[in-house]
Task: structure prediction
Amino acid sequence: MNNIFLHFDMNSYFASVEQQANPFYRGKPLGVCATLTSHGCIIASSKEAKAMGIKTGCRVDEALQLYPDIILVEVDPPKYRSCTEQIMRIVRDYCDEVELYSIDEAFLDLTGYAKNYDEAITIGKNIQRGITKEVGDWLTCSMGIAPTRWLAKFGSDTAPKGSIVTLTKENLPEYLRGRDLEEAWGIAGATATRLNALGIHTLDELADYPVMNLMEILGIRGYELWANVNAIEMRGLEKPRTPKSIGHSHVLRKRTRDIFFHKSIVMRLAERTGRRLRDLGLEAWGIYAYTRLEKFGSIGGSKKVHEPIKSTQKIYSYVWNMLEEGISKDLATYYAIGLFRLKPETHQLSLFNKPKPERLIKALDEINNRYGEEVIAQGELTLLDKYHAPDRIGFRKTVGLDY
Result:
């Protein structure tokens, strides 16, 4: 039996979630911004905003020039994560072989779940109806169904919004005909330029090009490009992997020498980093911290440690010791902290230190995960405005949702 993969991608996801949550926003140009400052970046546009030329990456001041009445809202990560959790519960009713590629898209290996493409299409339509009925009638997704993972995503990327494209070995040549190289997932400017130099300008030309010639010039990458457009599966679904590092950064909106303010910022970044570490069931054996100063450049560094780092307090302690001297001398404008040398949590107790209150830390994490950021917070954070070092959403393999 041939493999059957399905890829779905939520349409204008963050903007659609905001329109779902607030009926007043529906049918109107709306942009979701990283920050509501003039130089803030729009990270998601509603279909109405896109029609006005306001796309992802546009700055707030540029968007206002294009359409002064655009509705602008600041990114709300917990809201989007909650919707994704609901969507993935629906998906799991039809298939257990799922790769969550980002917060708004996923791959399903339907091999064994669907006998043929007709059954796969039925599953896809059922998922679309389930999302509309159970999550929100303003949320739509595009889908691609194909014999390979790559083609499934290519299908959903090129499908009309809210529809399903099915690609088979029979209809693939016609579907590729005349399509620009950069329509394909993974082919950007530099790769397209190299292919153009070989006389390859469209995807059907890439599919027909001698694979050995491609490999002589591009190596294994040449084979991958050729295999993708010739319906040859390379790897199947990708399994979750332990990340190499976990970190957070923040450009300060408020410029001040108030040392307590800076301690609060560092504590918030430490809490965000620690939560992610613990949610993944990991511990760290290395830490880095950097701050950019107004007059004296950047300071910071990294270090390996001899006992595992798991708690927010320990992260904060290491970071503050690394940065305190520079912060006390100059105005800090940016922070970046992170953990590396990540390993699965061992729960080993130290012979020389008192046992850590792991059960308490776990309980606090569970409360904040369920009821929202900083429902229970470190004392240093009680006076810190939510607009300083706010929660941020992850894209592309950084989504840590557990279903």
User: Anything to note?
Assistant: The two ends are 29 Å apart (CA to CA). The chain has a mean pLDDT of 87.
